[in-house]
Write a sequence for this structure.
């Protein structure tokens, strides 16, 4: 796996945990399966997009 992909997916995982699990608990909302599935899709794609835009920061693309 390329470095930009690893970086993007780790960022996406971090954001998934914060925005899909921790933030709703702090806000007093429930966590359901639909929220988890939608969050997983959105943050995976967002993480890959983030990693791709940061691609120039890595020597090995």
């Amino acid at each position: 796996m390329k470095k930009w992909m690893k970086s993007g997916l780790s960022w996406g995982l971090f954001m998934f945990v914060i925005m899909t699990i921790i933030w709703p608990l702090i806000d007093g909302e429930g966590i359901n399966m639909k929220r988890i599935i939608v969050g997983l899709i959105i943050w995976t794609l967002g993480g890959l997009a983030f990693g791709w835009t940061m691609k120039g920061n890595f020597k090995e693309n």
Summary: The mean pLDDT is 91.
